[in-house]
Design a protein that fits this description.
784 residues, mainly beta, Tachylectin-2, Chain A, Jelly Rolls, seven-stranded antiparallel sheet, globular, ConA-like_dom_sf, Glyco_hydro_43
């Protein structure tokens, strides 16, 4: 006799044998296996069996139904418990923060990277998105300030009745623009008029007075009664009497009241220039009395203010480079009298690798009562200063006396995981350069230019789905984003054939505009222009693929009073270009400061161009030497138009070092004798995130993931894409016991994905440390 066995599957999964009705002889034992989809979990059987195991045996001794239940796997909804600095990787100097309800906004210096005055938004202080850029690069006020080091300095937001004002500096004077929304559009910038000449303390205003402008790297302070002050900084050090009454670059620090109606200064001013008078409290004193260059580096700049428990707190920075510090002052009243202000000494001093942490925002309080601050710093000890002054988040604690007067103490731990702000999790992607297929009718807001890029020099509408660069003859044009990672593989797909000698186009990483006149820089700046690129070029009447590194250094004249020439060097390798007009170029950039160049006709098979090139000089320069701006990544074209329809900043098909997560929870970086720094400490539920990973574009898709792993007892790695934004688990990779932490194996599991994603690797298993990871890499295949 035969009986029917009906197998069902509810949810995202199937069974083996597949769901259906099967006739089986009485007494037959049927083995059924539950097979959840990658994004689902098996939750149990019902009907003919109730076991939780995914494999069950059913004896057919009558009509029976067996149902396998599956449910979509969900990412834990709790807030991130720890975070890693930098929160804003890449160049984010001179930040100021504005808070409105549960929303946080940051502005800072753009210099000659345009459009200028970028506004960022966050809800959790960890994940930031671009809201708008305030200043059009074609604005006439920038015409005399577009070279490296020019552009806009600082920036801060003020709420007004009609919407918002954003203030910023050009040529050491303040301007503001207005809009109804922080998303813009923004009006034409308005100059903030100085209220009159400035007389240093102790001098006769009829004999000694100077036009000091309205400052740079200023901020704003709003008192409890709504009175708004421009917190001004102009110049450095202490007034020393000058020579014959002439002006020197003495430091002026002022609180100047703003008229809320006009946005202009009202004329009322509180003079805090005494912060420049001595070295101990963060100024540099009298330059004549302190000729040592290290002392003269104390500038009392980047001033900010906050108020707490009825006390005013004023902060300024010694200087903006490695070794800089933040100093503080406290007063019960706003007064120009130095006796009313208590110096608090150094309240923020960075630690390796961010030992230049300073130039901070005003400390601010969040909903749970904790206080926080953003500062900027180079990676001073790890040979990565070329990334610029990166954005760091730190918690602030206060040491109070009985009166409520406090001293802010900024917690360290800048180079390791720290407890995260207790704010709801955000679905905003972590801020990194974007991968782009140029499908919109304008450039994505991550893209920028050096100075003013005329609209007739680029287009995303001339050819739908392509970015077209259109340089004039003997001209190079760049479209760029902030460099932000120690290691990555940048890729472009390009339609371009060079016709004339010098025609070129490709992918580039560089620290300045190579064509600017380096001999025009002042001698206190030591400019150097460097770039590494992979390009298709016309050279010696041949169509070539060129991988090159170029460095341009100015040369001083005999008396070292001016730069008189430049010394240019280049390392390059060429290979014959393929016959195809459309091809892929790849620039791989490793943690060891080595770069390699590649080309392909299908993004699946790659040909290396020449040998690796060491580019450490590009990655460890001080941005003060090249106009304050960190390295920029992007595409370029010289002399002739070129079309790009894919730009990838972080290629997922090139190995990613697991020890370089952008954010993490519960992990640690450990040293392996055989694999170098690796991601360790992975217990059940711990995870690491790698942002802005391209898993397939231009007709190529991810079909597998490879994990280089070791494990003492075995575990598993769940692969999630964009879980905070409602994304899914795409794979669970079992990692076998390898016999020890120094024995590595490559684990491969199937993945089907395209597009740019945040990739989360989450450990799963028993107790204790489950596994360690050296690298991850997605395996490409044709899409469809």
């Amino acid at each position: 006799m035969e009986y029917p066995l009906t197998i069902e599957a509810k949810g995202d999964g199937t069974t083996d044998p597949p769901p259906g009705t099967y006739l089986r002889r009485a007494g037959t034992v049927v083995t059924v296996t539950a097979r959840p989809a990658p994004s689902a979990d098996f939750t149990g059987w019902s009907g003919a069996a109730s076991e939780a195991d995914d494999v069950v045996e059913v004896t057919v001794d009558g009509n029976k139904t067996l149902t396998a239940a599956f449910e979509t796997a969900s990412w834990p909804g709790k807030p991130q418990s720890t975070y890693l600095n930098p929160i804003l990787p890449g160049d984010h100097p001179d930040m100021n923060i504005y808070i409105e309800g549960d929303d946080f906004y940051i502005t800072g210096s753009s210099f000659n990277i345009s459009p200028n005055v970028e506004i960022l938004h966050s809800r959790d202080l960890i994940r930031w998105e671009r809201v708008s850029r305030v200043v059009d690069p074609a604005w006439s006020g920038l015409e005399a300030s577009t070279s490296a080091g020019g552009g806009t300095w600082g920036g801060f937001i003020v709420k007004v009745a009609a919407g918002y004002r954003v203030y910023f500096a050009v040529n050491f004077n303040q301007y503001f623009a207005e809009a109804e929304s922080l998303a813009g559009p923004w009006g034409e910038p308005v100059h903030v008029e100085p209220v009159g000449p400035y007389t240093p303390p102790g001098e006769d205003p009829e004999l000694v007075s100077f036009d000091r402008g309205t400052g740079y790297d200023d901020s704003v302070f709003v008192d409890d009664d709504g009175t708004t002050y421009l917190v001004v900084k102009a110049g450095q050090c202490k007034w020393n009497g000058g020579t014959g009454g002439e002006e020197n670059n003495f430091g002026v620090n002022l609180l100047q009241k703003l008229d809320p109606e006009t946005g202009q200064l009202s004329g009322e001013s509180i003079d805090l220039s005494f912060v420049n008078w001595d070295v101990e409290n963060g100024g540099c004193g009298d330059p004549a009395a302190n000729p040592d260059s290290a002392v003269e580096a104390n500038w009392a700049e980047g001033p900010t203010m906050t108020k707490r428990n009825g006390f005013y707190y004023y902060f300024d920075s010694t200087h903006t480079g490695c070794g800089g510090e933040q100093y503080g002052w406290r007063s019960a009243t706003l007064s120009s009298n130095p006796e009313d202000w208590t110096p608090l000494g150094s309240v923020l001093k960075g630690e390796a690798p961010f030992s230049g942490a300073q130039h901070s925002t005003a400390p601010f309080q969040i909903a749970d009562g904790t206080w926080w601050v953003f500062s900027h710093s180079y990676e001073c000890e790890s040979n990565w200063r070329g990334l610029g002054r990166q954005g760091l988040l730190s918690q602030v604690t206060w040491i109070d006396d009985e009166s409520g007067a406090g001293v802010p103490v900024v917690n360290g731990r800048l180079g390791e995981p720290a407890p995260a702000p207790a704010l709801p999790p955000s679905d905003i992607p972590f801020l990194l350069p974007v991968n782009d297929e140029f499908t919109g009718d304008k450039l994505a807001p991550a893209w920028t230019f050096y100075g003013n890029m005329p609209s007739d020099r680029y287009s995303v509408t001339d050819r739908a789905g392509w970015l077209r660069l259109k340089p004039a003859e003997d001209e190079t044009r760049w479209v760029i984003q902030k460099d932000a990672l120690h290691a990555k593989a940048m890729i472009v797909r390009m339609d371009f054939t060079p016709e004339a000698e010098g025609d070129a186009a490709g992918v580039r990483l560089g620290n300045a505009v190579p064509e600017q006149d380096l001999t025009a820089f002042p001698t206190w700046v030591h400019p150097i222009s460097q770039e590494v690129s992979v390009a298709r070029v016309r050279a010696d009447a041949e169509d070539r693929i060129r991988f090159s590194f170029r460095s341009v250094v100015p040369v001083l004249n005999a008396d070292e009073s001016a730069y008189e020439a430049v010394d240019a060097t280049e390392i390059s390798f060429d290979a014959p270009a393929p016959a195809e007009r459309t091809l892929w170029l790849k620039l791989v950039h490793g943690k060891d400061h080595e770069a390699t160049g590649w080309f392909s006709t299908d993004r699946l098979t790659w040909t290396q161009v020449g040998e690796p090139i060491e580019i450490g000089a590009l990655e460890d320069y001080d941005t003060v030497n090249m106009g304050w701006v960190g390295s920029q990544a992007g595409v370029f074209a010289s002399n002739a138009s070129a079309d790009f329809d894919v730009f990838t900043y972080r290629d997922g098909f090139t190995a990613i070092a697991a020890a370089e997560p952008d954010q993490e929870s519960g992990t640690e970086v450990v040293s392996s004798q055989s694999a170098g720094p690796v991601l360790g400490g992975l217990e059940d539920g711990d995870w690491a995130m790698y942002g802005s990973v391209d898993l397939g574009s231009g007709g190529v898709a991810s079909v597998e993931i490879e994990l280089q792993a070791s494990s003492a007892k075995g575990g598993a790695v769940e692969v999630w894409l964009d879980p905070l934004a409602g994304g899914r688990r795409v794979a669970t990779c079992d990692v076998p016991a390898t016999g020890g932490w120094e024995t590595w194996t490559t684990v491969t599991c199937k993945v089907s994905a395209t597009g740019s994603h945040e990739v989360y690797l989450r450990a799963k298993g028993g107790s204790g440390e489950l596994l360690r990871l050296a690298s991850l890499r997605f395996v490409p295949g044709k899409n469809g």
